[in-house]
From TrEMBL, chain A:
GO terms for molecular function: ATP binding. Residues 2-232 form the ABC transporter domain. It comes from Sedimentibacter acidaminivorans. Pfam families: ABC_tran (PF00005). The keyword ATP-binding applies. The keyword Transport applies. PANTHER family: HIGH-AFFINITY BRANCHED-CHAIN AMINO ACID TRANSPORT ATP-BINDING PROTEIN LIVF. Keywords: Amino-acid transport, ATP-binding, Nucleotide-binding, Transport. SMART domains: AAA. This is Branched-chain amino acid transport system ATP-binding protein. InterPro entries: AAA+_ATPase, ABC_branched_ATPase_LivF/BraG, ABC_transporter-like_ATP-bd, ABC_transporter-like_CS, BCAA_Transport_ATP-bd_LivF, P-loop_NTPase. Belongs to the ABC transporter superfamily.
TrEMBL record, chain B:
It comes from Sedimentibacter acidaminivorans. Signal peptide: none annotated. InterPro entries: AAA+_ATPase (IPR003593), ABC_AA/LPS_Transport (IPR051120), ABC_transporter-like_ATP-bd (IPR003439), BCA_ABC_TP_C (IPR032823), P-loop_NTPase (IPR027417). Pfam families: ABC_tran, BCA_ABC_TP_C. This is Branched-chain amino acid transport system ATP-binding protein.
TrEMBL record, chain C:
It comes from Sedimentibacter acidaminivorans. It is found in: Cell membrane. This is Branched-chain amino acid transport system permease protein. CDD domains: TM_PBP1_LivM_like (cd06581). The chain crosses the membrane at residues 12-30, 42-59, 65-88, 109-134, 140-156, 177-196, 226-250, 262-288, 308-329. It is a multi-pass membrane protein.
From TrEMBL, chain D:
Pfam families: BPD_transp_2. The keyword Phosphoprotein does not apply. Belongs to the binding-protein-dependent transport system permease family. LivHM subfamily. Keywords: Amino-acid transport, Cell inner membrane, Cell membrane, Membrane, Transmembrane, Transmembrane helix, Transport. The keyword Cell membrane applies. This is Branched-chain amino acid transport system permease protein. It is found in: Cell membrane. The chain crosses the membrane at residues 6-27, 39-57, 63-85, 97-117, 137-162, 191-212, 271-290. It is a multi-pass membrane protein. The lineage of its organism: Bacteria, Bacillati, Bacillota, Tissierellia, Sedimentibacter.
Amino acid sequence: MLKIRNLNVHYGGISAVKGISLDVPEKSIVTLIGANGAGKSTTLRSIVGLVKASEGEINFLGENITDMETTEIVTKGITLVPEGRRVFDNLSVLENLKIGAYLQKEGIDENIKMVYDLFPRLRERSWQFAGTLSGGEQQMLAVGRALMSKPKLIMMDEPSLGLAPLIVNGIFDIIKEINKQGTTILLIEQNANKALKIADMGYVLETGTITIEGPGKELLMDQRIKDAYLGTSKK
Amino acid sequence: MSVLKIDNVKMQFGGVIAVNNLNIDVEKGKIVALIGPNGAGKTTAFNVITGVYNPTSGSVFLNDKKITSLSPDKITKLGIARTFQNIRLFKNLTVMDNILIANHLNVKSNFLSSALRMPWYIKEENHMRKKSEMLLDKLGLLGIKDEIASSLPYGEQRKLEIARALATDAKLLLLDEPAAGMNPHETMELTEFIRNIRDEFDLTVFMIEHHMNLVMEISDKIYVLDFGQLIAEGTADDIKNNPRVIEAYLGVEEDA
Amino acid sequence: MMINNNRKLMRRSLTVLIIIAFASIIILLDTKTIGDNYVRRILNLGAIYAIVSVSMNLVNGFTGLFSLGQAGFMAIGAFTVAVFTVPVELREAIFYIVPQNPLVANIELPFFVALILGGLLAALVSILIGMPVLRLKSDYLAIATLGFSEIIRIIFTNMKTITNGALGINRIPGIPTMWITFGVAIVSIIFIVLLINSSYGRAFKAIREDDIAAEAMGINLFKHKVISFAIGAFFAGIGGGLLASLLGTVDPKQFYFTMTYNFLLIIVLGGMGSVSGTIIGSFVVTAGLEYLRIFDEPLTVLGVNIPIFRAGFRMVIFSFLLMILVLFFRQGIMGQKELSWDMIEGWFKRRKGLPKKGKVDKGGTI
Amino acid sequence: MSFETFMQQLANGISIGSLYALIAIGYTMVYGILRLINFAHGDIFMMAAYFMVFSMINFSLPWYIAIVLVIISTVILGVVIERIAYKPLRDAPRMSIMISAIGVSFFLENLATYLFTGVPKGFPDIPFLTQAANIGGISLSVATIVTPIITIILLLCVLFITNKTKIGMAMRAVSKDYETARLMGIKINRVISTTFVIGSALAAVGAVLWGAKYPSVMPLMGVMPGLKCFVAAVLGGIGNTTGAVIGGFILGMGEMMIVAFLPLLTGYRDAFAFIVLIIVLIVKPTGLLGEKVTDKV
Amino acid sequence: KNDSLPSSETASGDSDVIKIGVFEPLTGENGGGGSQEVGGIKYANKIYGEVLGKKVELVIVDNKSDKGEATTAVTRLIEKDKVVAIIGSYGSGVSIAAGDIIKQSKIPTMGASCTNPMVTQGNEFYFRACFLDPFQGNVMATYAINSGANTAAVIMQNGDDYSIGLGNFFIKSFKELTEDENSIVATSEFQVNDTDFNAILTNIKSKNPDVIFAPSSATTAPLIIKQARALGITCPIMGGDTWENPAVIDVAGKDAEGIVLSTFFDENDPATEEAKSFVEGYKKELGDSEPIIPAVAALGYDAYLLVLDAIERAGSTDGTAIRDAIAATKDFEGVTGVINFTDEGDADKNIAVIKTVKDGQFVYIDTVEVKQ
Ligand SMILES: Nc1ncnc2c1ncn2[C@@H]1O[C@H](COP(=O)(O)OP(=O)(O)OP(=O)(O)O)[C@@H](O)[C@H]1O
Ligand SMILES: Nc1ncnc2c1ncn2[C@@H]1O[C@H](COP(=O)(O)OP(=O)(O)OP(=O)(O)O)[C@@H](O)[C@H]1O
Ligand SMILES: CC(C)C[C@H](N)C(=O)O
Ligand SMILES: [Mg+2]
Ligand SMILES: [Mg+2]
């Protein structure tokens, strides 16, 4: 569904992503792990056109989207749940959801219902300004907002960041649920353990290049990954 | 002996009671953790301690001296330093400058004598630089002292923020989610780091964290906050098995 | 090692040479061996603008306080010099509508005393203003300081018995030598540079970068903001005093809030947070504005009068250049960097087309 | 002071206040979305007045056509300025955009001085607006009566647009976060242009009503109203439309009342705006209706 | 100690042109009037383009109606362009501001229409071709009283030497002539850039004066006039020389009808031979661009001729020599009358022209002669 070939991204003179290639098959969960600053977020941002690739090709459903505008890419059915939630705190919960469906002409109400069913908490808080929600609630809203555009591919950048363990579990349940309903997922996680567990495919990014790739379960067993990302001190 | 004592503190924003009748004692030389669901009021508690907010009621004591409603800079001078949930370094300045700035609170010369480079100021400045280099050396950051803070990798930035807090000569260190955004491996390294500085600098550490591995491993005592209220306190084992905490915060670990 | 030492020596001697050359030029200008009063006037104006702009950069660029009150503080300095240095016997003629208040009518101070007094008064007023407004953030601080600057101007417009109201004061004794403006400029700028590079300067930068973190590091925000603000006001007052003496005439209208924009432009042109850039910017703007006067004069090419060259065209060109600058050279002349030998050598090499070796400097300059 | 004089002064105050309010809405809208103090707003207003002079005097158009034309050309001017001077600086530090705005303001003023000379031009007489009415000893022109009404109507329109429509929602989203707004598929440039369309149209309406009242058109005519209306916008809490209108009324009324009741302080009339502003900011650092900004630490 | 600047001799002595500086506002508040004055000067230069066998070249600088800018502009004329004499400026404020530099550089300067006493006071190098504000104030007060006024209100612009000066001289004369300290029922000052005079005028209306005297720039005048009429004020409104500007009629429209102003010159009543040929020639030059010859143009013309005449008589371009020649001017027949200079350097004029506006035109009412 999404094919990336030899992607290079620069910030000014600094090269953040150095020629990576990856594939996201339809209806799968693919996860991208790696240390801080490895270039994970940059990869996602370049897929949706928030940063421009300096080299390489991004292909979505057979179409080259490398040089498209963000708005256009979003129209094609990709959305990003950005790092740090980024909900519109001056808009109510309901408005945040509506703005998620900005490009949608119809079916908005059903979508809202679908999101509310997924996150009953949001239904309760429908009129609250998003800025006053707790971190976990904001994260739910960010995911819900992304779902509003009925994306074919939803990309999530560290959705569990700063969340309480209970909520983290909840988020992973929801990712599985969304995927079950047919949405393809590209996930960035620091919590490599949990991510690899639910992933069909995993890629490990190190300073801008992919060093290891393979099915999630396999990577979970990989000694290099255990050492570098999973932490060996299991009590 | 308790270094920090939070006595019946309540913090209200309009209709929201973020912290309610909070009582906490942090003992000298210990590592104490504050955990709880998102929005429970943990950061708010830190903000009250450090003087960012004035509590609606209640008091905070540092070494039995009341510090409630002092301004943040005064509280830092009295010996509490902190880091922030979202890193707040002086981004465009060098590592060394970041550390030197944290030394400024001890500068005795006034602005005139420092601009005019009076001998006593030059002495202070030299002393400050030497001290900062020693600190950076101890924390293994000396090699990057001339780098611009924002160009550092995330983990180093976290470390630098802690180093900067230490440079104020504070004895009580408040860390707000130091491991946020770190993977389990990096988190483990951080655990070691915090333990080491506690011993090296003779510190008391009070921290907020959601990474349970870190918290359970390192804390001498844990306080659990929910809806602004303390729902549990105790050692790691007490907390892990406390049903209220599990229900409100930990959830059931699926497995290993 | 050897090469490095040689280089250092060469740089040092070059620096000394440049300082000597600079001093000689001023001496030659000053003794009227070269140049004319017009050139001297423009250079003096440039030096005055440099004082005010650098001090404004201290506040806006280094401390991150968005203050637009410079014109008001200049007015304080300018009127102090005007009120106290005009010879007593001329006052009656100047205050011909409403006589001057007897309290000040007979006080005549030496220029430097009046100048410093002007600076101090400006600083004092800035502290009084700073108490309430320095708590405000960015745009709100900007408009509040701009407002105070206007209030100062309006008060001067109405204090007829002291400032002669909106008529202003003329016949202010002139500046006898360029060393006064340049001397004051050099001393002021060196003072500000030393301050910026002291512990206090670092504290200012910390406040600029992140005031909450700065406060958490034990920096008393209010105290440091007030220091920076008052020093900025002090030097603005000094600049105003020099300006009064240079122009020989002051009236409140000159210190309209739009005057502050000029300094803002200079700072941005020179590079926000760069002292050397600001100094260069000051001279470029003052000299440039005069140079552009050719656009105001009728131009005849081959006997045909080109109609677009007429009064006002200069300012159109000026504002156009300004827009180009803001849009395409956002960093200004120097960015955040200071002029240094490394940089000059860098230019030199590039000119000669020598291959840049080693580190490429990280962009920034134009 | 007689009752008549008092009522007359009151009417004077409402009339100038509502003009300030009208122009302040434009300021506040642009600020609300771009966080940009659009220093050029007063000059756009000035250009609108010149457009009116040209269309009615030089091209002898009837006033109703002229007004439409003026609104259209002012809107074009506003959008062009946004495209040329602000759009390229979308990701630049705010200071740069601000300087750019000052630059545009300088440019328009100088250009107008150069093209139209400093000599004031008479604002064309719109008979319908300048008709004088005498109500119980109080002299009012139709413009004076109509202005507050138009201001309130336009305020309601703007409030409706920003709070109840999709584009309004997009405006609010863009004002918080360009990048995430782009992710939602919002064409932020279009949204920002729309803001300038509304803001400039309001400036044009303001210019027509202003001209009917103060029929002297000159290159610097926008400076003082520009500054006052900006103060009005800040007073009300910049970014808040209702606040801007309240701020405008307070300023207009206050100025008139100073001159009316304290003739000795007439010289301080222009200072009034700033004194009120500073007092309000000291008590309420973000203006009367401004959103409270607490830094989330 | 005053070893002034490279004197003008070396500068233009050996070249074949003589440069005369024109120091006028071309932009800013007084840009309109300044341009009119420059028109007259340029025309004079066209007619009389030579002196001492050399071509006269005008160097025109814009002082932008700004005092600070004015000093720079004058310095530039003297130092960079090395002019031997200067003409200007419209607007007394800028003239006063530049006075000191002129005095120090010893460059004779001829004001055309700057009427404030301060311009020439104590400055032996500054002269002027027009009458003064005390005189003008007296003229207008006299005229007001002669047309039946017992009370007056005065509106002045704070910060404009001209407006404040003239206003105060009017007040003084009016009180003296009516022998009533309370005959001035209201005085108000407004600020630069003010456009709204409703509050001031409402107060004045409640005092019900017989006449309003509002010396002000041509920019402000029509606003005051229009707003006064809109408030239902019906008494005569009077101003000074600045008002004889087409902008006033253009902007104030039908409300300008009936205003009264004093000025220097009337094209329908040429006082001298020179005036006749000037009116004829300059009318042609102006074409349709101005309905009548602006008085300031006539003064500009005179100022130029006065300077030229003095250079001729001095036989040199030395500043002091020219100055002395100007001071010695005897019965010079200019366009605006016969000119001699007082010890202060002011044209010794004792007539002013009173005009009003009728059917959208400035029309002559009277010539007033006042013995000072
Ligand atoms: N706007 C930017 N300008 C310059 N450099 C940037 C920018 N954003 C990111 N970088 C740099 O690009 C590199 C990759 O950053 P990126 O955010 O993609 O990493 P990441 O893998 O998502 O890390 P994290 O776990 O911290 O989110 C880093 O070295 C970072 O410093
Ligand atoms: N300045 C403020 N104004 C209004 N409400 C506030 C303010 N600061 C915090 N709150 C509210 O107080 C509650 C506690 O917030 P706090 O930031 O202390 O949570 P936390 O425990 O640190 O959560 P997290 O783990 O997500 O960081 C939240 O509901 C928050 O919205
Ligand atoms: C030229 C004149 C109309 C101006 C006025 N007399 C003045 O001196 O300011
Ligand atoms: Mg990332
Ligand atoms: Mg928190």
